[in-house]
Amino acid sequence: MSCSSCCGLSISISIPKEAWTHVDRNDFQRFESMTSGSSSKMKALRMTFLLLLLFIPAMIFIFILAGLTSRTDRHISTMSRPPKTVPIQISEQTFTRLNNTKHLLVSAFMDQRRKGLDIRIIGIFKRDSINPLNCYFWCDGHMSVPTPSEIMVHSDHFGFPYGATDVMCPIPENCYATHVTLVTRPTSDIEPDQLWLPIRNREMKENVNDTFQFDFTVCISNLFGDYNNVLQVAQTLEMYRLLSVDRVVIYNTSCGPELDRLLQAYIQEGFVEVVPWPIDQYLSPSKGWLFSKHGGELHYYGQLTSLNECIYRSMARSRYVLLNDMDEIVMPYQHTNLTSLMDMLQQQHPNTGVFLIENHIFPKKHFEPSKRFHLPQWNGVPGVNLLEHIYSEEPDRKVYHPHKIIIQPRMVEQTSVHEVLKKFGQVFKVPPQVCRLIHVRVPLQGALPIDQLHVDKRLWDFHERLIPNVDMVLRRAGLLNRGAELMDD
Predict the structure, then answer these.
(1) N or C: the chain end with fewer CB closer than 10 Å?
(2) What is the pLDDT of residue 403?
């Protein structure tokens, strides 16, 4: 006997032939002896008995089928349901507002250097309104369950209401995460306008000895106020190129039209990467570093956040990262380039991931008297000519004196402007006779006369290659005084 159910189950029940034979020889003989008096009654009883014989296996079949169906239903009910799939909106802006908060998110990176944590989201948070957040991940086509976050406001905020902030998230099991978002409370329904951040550095190198795309990256924060110091920028970038720098990342809030043309020329050749930084469209940023003195909502146009963002942007692709401003050059004095400098320093200090470079001020009001490098082709180019400024102040080391930084990014977790806040290795102050900062700007120590300044012509050592390279990029950007150049030829 067999039966096929509507759900595709097939069950067969067979009764051995011997069992039927046993019934014929025993039960039927007794039954006939009891009913020999009446053939019609015997036929009726015989029919009843046959019906009973058919009813019993039928009931057995029904019980078996019911049991199988019950077990199948229980198995289906306990199986994990497919995760909810929803369309997501991916943020394509530098700053992403976090729904139901006053916070801004910037970017997300894979970072598994802290046990139990996988993703670091870099943001700018209102420090007096921080509440718990939950992380959701887009896992190769579906949304994950929420995971709790760990919120870390950077210790350096200089009193401003907003500060650089990291949000750390663990990725749930069985999730190949490609995007992440934050919500103020767990929910089964993400808001339709919720924006998701792509997760960068997902193929992060763990071995610091691996080959990197770049040996040196310079991080420049932030251009603002229609900054248009074209000549100094061109000289600085070309000097860095001579010193073995491979990539310069510049965070740009606003710059002048001539500088924009210069940067576009560098972008086209792949040497410069410009990150739009329109923080003034979201907050009221300060032009100074101290809230009590300069006001505003955020330190120096978000300088702290941009420096940290650049570290993580460069972490998987660059062996070293230099953190400094556009008017500064990290200059080796005993080596011809940064490669040989860092090879020596790293060999002498193998467990060091942070190298502090002392700042030396070259007041831009003092000029080299011979005017040797006052070149006519640069007359129409806006900005400072670095080669004309050779006088430097002696740092006053009895008071706090700032440094800038060369780091191995994989050994740094958080940085400030002049020092690293959280790190995994040692810190070394590089002696100024080995390497120091050439910083052409207004004086730091007031109106010191020239005879109290040091003569430093280190930049002149590179002039034979530096000048034609500067001319070339200015010409490519259409900024060189071509008439003066022809007269000079």
Answers:
(1) C
(2) 97
Exposed (0-12), middle (13-18) or buried (19+): which is 283, by Cβ within 10 Å? Answer: buried
Task: Mention every residue, 6+ apart, whose C-beta is less than 8 A from residue 249.
Answer: 217, 218, 219, 220, 272, 273, 274, 275, 310, 313, 314
| 440 Cβ contact list (under 8 Å, min separation 6) | 232, 327, 362, 364, 384, 386, 389
Q: Which residues pair with 198 in a beta bridge?
A: 179
Report how far residue 323's alpha carbon sits from residue 416's, in angstroms, rounded to the nearest whole number.
Answer: 10
Element (H, E) at 305: helix 303-314
**Which of helix, strand or coil describes residue 55?**
helix
Q: Which residues is 438 bridged to in the sheet?
A: 329, 360
Q: DSSP assignment of 440-482, as one string? A: EES-SSSS--GGGSEE--GGGGGHHHHHHHHHHHHHHTT-S-H
Task: Please give the DSSP secondary-structure letter assigned to residue 84.
Answer: P
Q: Beta-carbon neighbour count of residue 72 at 10 Å?
A: 12
| Residue 287 phi, psi (nearest 5) | -90, 5
Q: What is the pLDDT of residues 53-89, one digit of tens each?
A: 666 655 665 554 444 343 333 332 223 334 445 579 9
**Parallel, antiparallel, or unpaired: how do β-strands 177-183 and 195-200 relate?**
antiparallel
Scanning 35-124, the segments in alpha helix (DSSP H) are: 39-78
CB atoms within 10 A of CB 300: 21
**Residue bearing tokens 């910037």:** 106
DSSP-derived secondary structure letter, 255 = B
Cα distances (angstroms) measured from residue 177 to each of 120, 203, 253, 314: 13, 12, 31, 21
| Tens-digit pLDDT profile for residues 278-318 | 999 999 999 999 999 999 999 999 999 999 999 999 999 99
Q: DSSP state, 27?
A: I
Contacts of 21 (CB under 8 A, 6+ apart): none
The per-residue pLDDT for range 131-179, each reduced to its tens digit, is: 999 999 999 889 999 999 999 999 999 999 999 999 999 999 999 999 9
Whether residue 406 is predicted with pLDDT greater than 70 in this model: the reply is yes
Helix (H) or strand (E) holding 406: strand 403-407
- Using an 8 Å Cβ cutoff, are 142 and 234 in contact? no
User: Residues 95, 107: contact at Cβ < 8 Å?
Assistant: no
Q: Beta strands 195-200 and 147-148: pairing type? A: unpaired
